[in-house]
Amino acid sequence: MDASDIILEHIRANDEELSYIAKDIWDHPQVALQEEYAAKLLARKLEEEGFSISWGAGGMPTAFIAEWGEGAPTIGFLGEYDALPGLSQQLASEKSPIEAGGAGHGCGHNLYGTACMASVMALKAAMEQGGIEGKIRFYGCPAEETLVGKTFMARDGVFDDLDAAISWHPGDTNITWNGSSLAMNSFKVNFHGVAAHAGGSPWLGRSALDGVMLMDAGVNYMREHVPPESRIHSVVTSGGQAPNVVPAFAQVWYFVRAPQREQVEEMYRWMQDIAKGAALMSGTTHEIEFITGCYDILPNRVISDLLYDKMAAVDDMAFTEQERQFARQLQATFPDGSVQNGYDWMQKSTSVELDPGTMDDPLWEGVFPHSPTPPRLGGSTEVADVSWITPTGQITTTCWPLGTPGHSWQTVASSGSSIGAKGMIFAAKTMALAGLDLLTKPDLVAAAQADFERARGGKTYVTPLPPEAVPR
Asked: Are residues 322 and 412 in the same domain?
């Protein structure tokens, strides 16, 4: 049996246990930086398999690194396991929380970390039997949903010695993601004023809420003069407690996104000036709490092509009619246009012309070649930070029905079902086979590194985090 066969057989032989682990994490959802159950479960399994475990990367108790092997190259697998607040959901095709207001795996991270763990365990088995040199690492990355985990791990330098990194994400199609994403800053602006009776003596007060509102007005005037692909989102997290009290404290929280890191930094500097102006106009003081920031994804053509080749070689996904029926029931609850939107996005992402009739199938089993000019994600991910440090590739596999809204109860339901488990196993096989080639073909790693340097264009990764930032 050659190394590829060993990998596939190892994952096949353990698919029941892997599905159980993913469901166990699904049954115990914990939000960003609180993922103790999932982190300990995955770390314990990897330690039993002979991996050395180190905890606390990036100053986060639920972050860990599992390593096995000796020599070069060093290949990393990026695992995640955080849930989202307010998305508790049973395995049902109608909205039915397990716990009102509780957390749920609305992005499929119960599958994400488990698949990467499966990949490194299968690779270890093949390396041992074949005498293959090199190191493999599983990175237990918390807090992806708040864009904290990998940014703080990157600041600690834990990815610096990688020769390549592999990742994936649950989705509604089988495709290599070789597009980019939006860079982002997340920060809060606190305004401090003077409390006073709003009816009796408002002239004695200074409204912190006025500072927030003036800042938001200034940001809205700024929108005309930023790149059209950029995004600015905000919520007022504190605006006072009662209308008859001039608020002494108010807070606004911003996400600022743009296609390039430099654009985000320029917009952030401008918004800092707007905050100063708002404080002057309102007679208040202010301070900025920088929470996190991330880069835009730097695609790597070599690793993207490798992942596609391996995905196409595996090509063993098969859903049952019962699973399709469950998927159709979920689709019936989607907002209007969701399935069409999923189809349209897929058409932009692949290099082949899709048959509109494929929208009738809720679960796509086929493997699609990625487009040479894929669309840019409207969201952000700190996988991007890793991609600016080492050549990085990422795939998606079918774990949800076509058109499933992100961060939804429908995603939770599908991620806890056998549909999600099948997509997870498919991803594990693909990533492990790609990792094998990176370990055994030096020319492939060299080509990925060359493409990485070309794409960086002389730029180097500089953490967006200020020295005083802490994970939160």
From this structure: yes
